[in-house]
Design a protein that fits this description.
single chain; 92 residues; mainly alpha; 3 helices; 0% strand; flat
């Protein structure tokens, strides 16, 4: 790899180093808030479930020009998640 093509050591799988931990800690704060306001605990649960989906969207969109295989894998993961929800709808 030439020097301009190398990614920094803090970048993992197409995500900036701060993005996933920030989403996690926002989820922790929302879940802690759900302890104080139980009617809004669902917001924390939805956020924690959405963080990996948002990360996959970020990887798919931001990395399309630099690493199409990684972006394709992220899109395939999102398609698999959509398929799970569709099949779940048929089972009910």
């Amino acid at each position: 790899m030439s020097a301009p093509d190398r990614k920094t050591d803090t970048e993992l799988a197409g995500l900036p180093a701060w993005l996933y931990p920030a989403g996690f800690w926002v989820g922790v704060a929302l879940l802690a808030g759900g302890v104080l306001l139980p009617d809004y605990a669902w917001v924390g649960v939805v956020w924690v479930a959405a963080v990996p989906v948002l990360a996959a969207l970020w990887v798919a969109a931001a990395g399309w020009r630099t690493d199409r295989r990684l972006s394709g894998a992220a899109l395939l993961a999102l398609a698999g998640l959509a398929l799970v929800f569709m099949v779940k709808g048929f089972i009910r």
